[in-house]
Give the backbone structure.
Amino acid sequence: MVEWSNTTDCKSVASGLRRFESFPAHKIKKPEQKLGFLIYVSARVPHLLAGRGGFEKLFIMNLKLVSNSLKRYTDPVRVEIPSRRTMKNFFKYFTATLVGVFFASFLLVPLFNQGVKNFILASVIGDSFCPQGDGKIFENEMTVYVNKTVGLPSGYVPENLIEVSNEIRSTKNGCLKREALDNLKIMFADADKGNIKLAVTSAYRSSVLQSQLYKALYALKGEKAKDRIAPPSHSEHQLGTTVDLSGESIDYVSASDRFTDTPEELWLRENAYKYGFVQSYPKGKTSITGYDYESWHYRYLGTEIAKEISEGGITIEEYFQDLKEKE
Ligand SMILES: [Zn+2]
């Protein structure tokens, strides 16, 4: 488990990033803010260049990815893309990146402590490669009970994680278990028929990455962060069956309240259960789920259970509690 030695490391880097939400760079005066941005952008380069689908995706999708990611790490659960961002700004990013990667990778990164290095590492590789679980810990990995208080075994990695970006619309590389991915593909295809364009913006997250995100958010929001993001080893994202979804109508912005009540979100609320997906943290259920409303966060449980939850008007949490009582 990776731990921040000191949350202020994260805070100073994050505050640097936050200032860079709006270029031009000359507005950023403090050296540590410049440094934060430089390192971050540099660290993103390999990820950007790994974009699939050629020129268009590399430039257009990664334009969104850069601005998205900047916000993601300053405010990981509320991401907004500035709509007036232009290609001109993108080329500024790109130039800064090329210069930055050279300096940062060879000169600057070695100067930082492990906490900052891990943060950079997580932003580069993050959840974009698929580790493999070393054997079955759970009899049925689809129905593992996890919430704010019930955690997963330390170092748990699900079996058979598969890269999603080759097979399904997604804003970055990610991994899911085969069964969840297959059903998601069918759901996306059916949604497409009604001109509802969905994308995966976050899938499997290791406990290490979850730890980075949690600590980054905690440094920014304090205690409030606890209702917005799961602590490491307590996230449904670690199951490899859970996704954050977004839609074309909001430019596939990740984990944003802007997703609520969009055509894509309304479609999901109506139809997701048919494909085995359930919204984990519905509106008005914070006292039960422990988390604020997340219109974008869906967990795959299989069509049978999803139907039961949907028809019963209950939450996943209540479903598992009922199950425990019956035992
Ligand atoms: Zn989520």
The pocket of zinc ion is lined by residues 202, 237, 244, 297 (CB under 6 Å). The radius of gyration is 19 Å. The first strand starts at residue 161 and ends at 163. Residues 8-94 form one domain.
